[in-house]
Amino acid sequence: MSQTQKAPWYYLLLLILAGESVFILPFVLSRVFRPTVLNVFSLDNTQLGLCFSVYGFVALVSYLFGGPLADKYPPRKLIAVALWMTALGGLVYATFPSYFMLKILYGYWGFTTIFLFWAAMIKATRVWGGENSQGKAFGLLDGGRGLVGALFGSMGVLIFSIFITSEITDASLLESKEAFRYVILVSTGIVVVVGFLVWVFMRMDNEFEKTIILDTITVSQIKEVLRLPAVALLMIIIACAYVGYKITDIFSLYAQDVMGYDQVQSAQVGTFLLFVRPFVGVIIGILADRSQTTYWLLVSFVISFFGALLFATGIITDSSTLLFFISILIVATGVYAARSLYFAVMEQGKIPLMLTGTALGLISVVGYTPDIFVGPAMGYLLDANPGEIGHRHVFWMLGTFSLIGGIAAWFYYRLYRKKKVVL
């Protein structure tokens, strides 16, 4: 029986739900509510960026050791425990801890969301996709995660607006804190529920499960993975694509600083961005499986590069609302397409399924280093150059990494462009 038949549709649905829920507290809320987060936690952009850096340092170690863990234990248990542990951090987050404690909390989240969770999710998705549907599997995963994130964002904006009783522009710090506390607590409760759903329903056939799990990971197997050209190229591709994904965090702040939007309007911009992600993920996944996954990965970096130039050149002003949203769509299309496909090309890169977690751990040590440096870099550029100029510098950074990622994707395409047979 094929891998796809072994894992039913609801298995992927649970992966989608869990895959975004685990990142709601550390990332999605700050993406949608960035101006509010800065305000209620009394942070500047650099300090928030340093919180993300702490997360990144812990995640870096977690990727390395969590990868082999995913090759030894069933995904269901690893994912459920990771969700519950992440939710515990939400209770601390809702107390609005000090800056020092916030950095510790982000370090804790770097462990809970990566060590037990990340490689297990990617390996389970690869199993679901089988040999001929990797583009669809990862496109649906990332697109579905985007939809879940958008729904969380919409829910958060609704809850926040309900508990702000005065005019948004006149809301006090205390009122903003109380409203945002409800957003955090509701999100935390949902993460707990998702953990129980995964534990109960995300099961695979016992005999099949044994075929994708290794009793031990040897040094020779690690060396085998490191010798694969796909591994080195994916390190660069994922790093560059992830820089783009991290930079999308500032769109809600751009809406406030450059376009002049209030807290709720800027949060709605962040939510709008989240709704783009599912459409891009699904469409690019279907296109990739029908033609060349590696080709569409290259195209995604090209789109991201030209979208970055629209913001970096400063042609968008507070009076060009339509151009602002069109430019967001272009950047989001490129960034989310690359994010949907960079794991989908593992199959073409001849990375063994049983060693997916180990390979992913090694790739991620380099690929996710943007968790360490992008936050502080963006914070410095924005704080040192207030207003539109700082944002333009950030988008020049996006353009640079999109160009580098595009070059690496071109080499990957040339190396693994043999036409696949679609059944």
**Could you tell me the radius of gyration in angstroms?**
20 Å
Number of domains: 1
Oligomer: single chain
Q: Indicate the CATH topology.
A: Growth Hormone, Chain: A
**Beta-strand share of residues:** under 5%
Number of helices: 19
Q: Structural class given helices, strands, pairing?
A: mainly alpha
Number of strands: 0
Give the H and E element order: HHHHHHHHHHHHHHHHHHH
CATH structural class = Mainly Alpha
- Residue windows where pLDDT falls under 50 for at least 5 positions: 1-5
Question: In terms of topology, how is this protein built?
Answer:
Elements: H1 3-6, H2 9-32, H3 34-40, H4 45-70, H5 75-93, H6 99-112, H7 118-129, H8 134-163, H9 173-201, H10 206-211, H11 219-226, H12 229-247, H13 251-257, H14 263-290, H15 293-312, H16 321-341, H17 356-367, H18 370-384, H19 388-415
Helix pairs in contact: 2-3, 2-5, 2-7, 2-8, 2-9, 3-9, 4-6, 4-7, 4-17, 4-18, 5-6, 5-7, 5-9, 7-8, 7-17, 8-9, 8-14, 8-16, 12-16, 12-17, 12-18, 12-19, 13-14, 14-15, 14-16, 15-16, 15-19, 18-19
